[in-house]
Amino acid sequence: MIEQPVHLRPVIADLPSYVPGKRASAEHRAFKLSSNENPFPPLPGILAAIADAAAEVNRYPDMYATELCETIARRHGVSPARVVVGCGSVAVLGHLLAATCDPGDEVVYAWRSFEAYPIYVRLSGATAVPVPVSDDGRLDLPAMASAVTERTRVVLVCTPNNPTGPAVHAAELEAFLDAVPCTVVVALDEAYVEFVRDPEAPDALALAAARPNVVVLRTFSKAYGLAGLRVGYAVAEERIANALRVAATPFGVSNVAQRAALAALEEGDEAQQRVDWIVAERERVAAELRRQGWVLPDSQANFVWLALGPGTMARAQEAEAAGIMVRPFAGDGLRVTIGVVTANDLLLELAQGWR
């Protein structure tokens, strides 16, 4: 009998795998500036919460992360019924697409933007509708609004945009939301919101309170330094929030992760000091790069973007050889996370040579 391979969906063969930030090998020590991680180690209170929670790993976690949802809700002044926690904000996004999209539906997003968008959209069965970002790395919201059709179910607005860095502005976002039908979900992906200092940035939570089709996605991975524990959440209208709970993986957020996230919220002042340090260092690095002659997008995240075009992969190899791991996007540019001062200075030295 001739053995036949098991059936896999054709979309799987066509999809690229998500590319994580490169890690240094055991033989080659390097600064890892490739994954937008927080350069600071966990705060003591978070480590203590993790240690305490580890004693209960024989038990299933609270499936709905009740205490964490209630705490997040208090901080944002919303009902706990509107908060849904998941295994990172990207998992919550996947649940949102699963709850809203059927085959043949469309999802609009900017490109280049978060690398997971086309993967999750196509896995949901929907059709991806990418809209080019502007030359300055900003989302082209009028073009995104024009791309909406009667088949559009979701629009993804990454602000600040990963990997280019700019945040959308309140006035342009209000105009965009006015142009999009209220039957279309607009997901504001704010993974880097704590690093935003642009005075024109919107109040996403206020928009979500005023417009039932707006969903806000946030994470504990970046500002709070919990990337290894995978905790994110959505703030959404109750009907959408209930749909997210139905679509979610049962027990998807471990008790260790829930306890760490609660501890992170309690460490608010010190966590904010770390964020402020990263923002100041981002501004220092960006100012020096501009002094060297680089034209940079206005990054409001914890990284900078160097548009290198065809030379991107070669420059990434040079950076690795010099001791820093960066995140290349072939043909477009390099995203470089703000790290410790020594690592950032090494980037500046390399960038000067590239000029």
Quickly describe the structure.
This protein has helices at residues 10-14, 44-54, 66-76, 89-100, 116-123, 141-146, 170-179, 204-210, 238-247, 255-266, 268-292, 312-322, 341-354; strands at 31-32, 83-86, 106-111, 127-132, 152-158, 185-189, 214-219, 232-235, 303-307, 324-325, 327-329, 333-337.
| Overall mean confidence score, pLDDT | 95
The first-to-last residue Cα distance is 63 Å
What CATH first level of the largest domain would be assigned? Alpha Beta
The helicity comes to: 40-55%
Strand-helix topology:
Blueprint: H1 10-14, E1 31-32, H2 44-54, H3 66-76, E2 83-86, H4 89-100, E3 106-111, H5 116-123, E4 127-132, H6 141-146, E5 152-158, H7 170-179, E6 185-189, H8 204-210, E7 214-219, E8 232-235, H9 238-247, H10 255-266, H11 268-292, E9 303-307, H12 312-322, E10 324-325, E11 327-329, E12 333-337, H13 341-354
Parallel strand pairs: 1-10, 3-4, 3-5, 5-6, 6-7
Antiparallel strand pairs: 2-8, 7-8, 9-12, 11-12
Helix pairs in contact: 2-10, 3-10, 4-9, 11-13, 12-13
Protein model, in words:
This protein is α/β, with parallel strands linked by helices and 355 residues long. The protein folds into 2 domains: 10-32 and 269-354, Aspartate Aminotransferase, domain 1, CATH 3.90.1150; 44-266, Aspartate Aminotransferase, domain 2 (3-Layer(aba) Sandwich). It has helices at residues 10-14, 44-54, 66-76, 89-100, 116-123, 141-146, 170-179, 204-210, 238-247, 255-266, 268-292, 312-322, 341-354; strands at 31-32, 83-86, 106-111, 127-132, 152-158, 185-189, 214-219, 232-235, 303-307, 324-325, 327-329, 333-337. It has a 7-stranded mixed beta sheet with strand order 2-8-7-6-5-3-4, with helices on both faces. It has a 3-stranded antiparallel beta sheet with strand order 9-12-11, covered by helices on one side. Strand 11 (327-329) and strand 12 (333-337) form a beta hairpin. The longest helix is centred in the C-terminal third of the chain and has 25 residues, at 268-292.
